[in-house]
Specification:
This protein is of the alpha/beta class. The chain has a single domain, classed as YbaK protein (Alpha-Beta Complex), CATH 3.90.960. It has five helices and eight strands, in the order H-E-H-E-E-H-E-H-E-E-E-H-E. Strands 1, 2, 3, 4, 5, 6, 7 and 8 form an eight-stranded mixed beta sheet that branches. The longest helix has 9 residues. It is globular.
């Protein structure tokens, strides 16, 4: 890593504690810019920037779904895939309560509450990804094998 000072987030601490091979990359966070803005600022394909989305089933049970930056989640397909009636995105304040992260800086690593992690299965086909490291404007670059090793996500086919 360079001499740049990176924030020590629960995600960064989790990555370090699992002896993950990763690098941190910063960019100027843009409110509502999403993965399109971060991919452009880092000069990478948006398909390789992975969104961490916090959703809940009809009973309010939270879950994490990882999705390519250039794709959306079919909540109907996700509900069918995991055997629940319905899935919907959590309100920002609810997502923050579950994860400990502000929306726009949500990481699947080091969350406040343990939640099941689902991953669009085609993410495994991408050799290296950029994923939020627990702060707005901070992404971790790591291999998908590292991601799978640390999170053990359940693969699903729910991209639209």
């Amino acid at each position: 890593m360079s001499k740049e000072k990176f924030p020590t987030t629960p995600a960064v601490l989790a990555l370090k504690s699992q002896k993950s091979d990763f690098t941190l990359h910063t960019y100027q966070y843009e409110d509502r810019g999403g993965t399109k803005a971060s991919a452009k600022k880092l000069g990478v394909n948006e398909h390789c920037v992975i969104k961490t989305l916090i959703m809940e089933d009809e009973t309010g049970k939270p879950l994490i779904i990882l999705m390519h930056g250039d794709k959306e989640v079919s909540t109907k397909a996700l509900a069918r895939a995991i055997g629940v009636k319905s899935i919907s995105p959590c309100k920002p304040e609810v997502a923050e309560k579950h994860t400990g992260y502000k929306v726009g800086g949500t990481s699947p690593f080091g969350t406040r509450k343990a939640m099941p992690v689902y991953m669009e299965q085609t993410i495994a086909d991408v050799p290296e990804i950029f994923i939020n490291a627990g702060s707005r404007g901070l992404l971790a670059k790591l291999s998908t094998t590292e991601l799978v090793r640390m999170l053990n996500p359940i693969p699903v086919n729910v991209a639209i």
